[in-house]
Amino acid sequence: MKILTILGARPQFIKAGTVSREIAKHKEIEEIIVHTGQHYDANMSDIFFEEMQIPKPDYFLGIGGKSHGAMTGQMIEKIEEVALKEKPDWIMVYGDTNSTLAGALVAAKLHIKLAHIEAGLRSFNMNMPEEVNRILTDRVSNILFCPTDAAVQNLKNEGYDNFRCKVVKSGDVMQDGALFYKNLAVKPSFDIKDDFILCTIHRAENTDDEIRLRGIFEALEEIAKVANSGCEANFPRKEKQIILPLHPRTKNILNNLKLNIQNLTLIDPVGYLEMVWLIDNCSLVMTDSGGLQKEAYFFEKPCITLRDETEWVELVEVGANTLVGADKDKILDAYKTHKPLSTNYQSLNLYGGGKASENIIKELLEY
Ligand code: UDP
């Protein structure tokens, strides 16, 4: 069996790395990796391939830093060329980026079977480019690997029982990765205080909206300044640091806005092994990232999500995640009232317990 894996953005390297490790156990499967180049910086791409031992891409398309239309169009053209040459049995795509959609359209048009990993997720916000990408990709997939019960239910609600495709609850490949890399975590070399909050902001709905971005950063500044106000019972230490690995998009926009940021530890994006250390050792995660919301839970950390909706609804339902949006006062309220996670959440096994990659490859072999 020959699988053409399409990836291009940071979270896809992390997810695909885990599945590639499982594929490598099967001599009967050949994997050809196409990197579209959507993320191409050293610290958003190269480092993941080096330190996570992800197989080197067989094709690098070099298509990044363009508008949605130009990027997706050029990806379709180039992926089609590769697919015609390689003649894979399957095209495998991950998540919800432009690279995902481009790979999906090529598969559909060339009648190559399509497997979508992280299928069925919905924010129900069609202004998100990710929501458009994932809905269109799901619709042309032959096999849809859903990470959660909620994702399976979303597909049922959209009538997928009547479509010619297979919906499988595989579990979440990010949990497989988190379990694997936990023991390989590396402490970053910059000055880190005993008690710190880990924060990431990169989603377009926040970065491209000045009011939202200001609300978030004003709240973070205030938390860092008045560190423990209202939270002494939970976090008795006096000093609290907010560590924020800045996505390149956020960095550019912040520079242009000239926000007065004095109390946050702004750093360049870190590799996954350092990221895992930061998640494992922080006291709280504040983020608009999809992946990080789950990783907070895998490492038993509370999470405040700086979005109006989430695809990971089960985390909100069990009380591990608080959705606050981007309003300064709401963020401060959520910070003041948050509590450490109690460990019994793990027993709920919301994400498959680390067996997702195994389930996915087994299904593909049996298809
Ligand atoms: N991540 C990382 N280094 C960083 C910031 C994030 O390795 O400096 C990881 C993070 O732990 C998660 C993934 O990148 O596994 C999430 O990527 P991102 O937030 O860009 O995308 P999303 O999950 O929102 O699609």
What do you see in this structure?
The chain is an alpha/beta fold and 367 residues long. It folds into two domains: 2-172 and 352-366, Glycogen Phosphorylase B (Rossmann fold, 3-Layer(aba) Sandwich), CATH 3.40.50.2000; 186-348, Glycogen Phosphorylase B (Rossmann fold). It is built from 15 helices and 13 strands. It has helices spanning 10-23, 42-51, 68-86, 98-110, 129-139, 149-157, 173-182, 204-207, 210-225, 248-257, 272-281, 290-298, 313-317, 328-337, 356-366, and strands spanning 2-7, 30-35, 59-60, 90-94, 113-117, 143-146, 166-169, 196-200, 241-245, 265-267, 284-287, 303-305, 321-323. It has a seven-stranded parallel sheet, with helices on both faces. Strands 10-9-8-11-12-13 form a six-stranded parallel sheet, with helices on both faces. Helix 1 (10-23) crosses helix 7 (173-182), helix 3 crosses helix 4 (98-110) and helix 7 (173-182) packs across helix 12. The longest helix has 19 residues, at 68-86. The radius of gyration is 20 Å and the shape is globular. The mean pLDDT is 94. The chain binds uridine-5'-diphosphate. Uridine-5'-diphosphate is lined by residues 10-11, 14, 200, 202, 245, 269-270, 272, 275, 289-292, 295.
